[in-house]
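Quick start: read one record
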Amino acid sequence: MWIRSQDKRILQEFIGVQARGGNETKPRIYGVYGNSESEILGYYPTHERCLEVLDEIQNTIIRYEVPLVYEMPKE
C-alpha cells in the first residue's frame, strides 16, 4: 500500500505498518518495506490514537480506493 507520511516528506509503498511506543517513547506508526526496513510515518498523542490510525489504514485497504494512497493525519 502506498502511504504518505504525516510530514508529507515520504510517499512510498509499504508491505506493512506497525504501532510502536507508548510508555516511555512517543507513540508512532512505522511503515515496513524491503528487507524489514522501516520508516516513521507519524507521531500521535496516545497509543490508542495509533491503533485508530491503523484501523483507518485497514479500512482503506478493505475498500481498495484507487489510487491507493493513505495520508497520515496530523493528530
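The mean pLDDT is 89.
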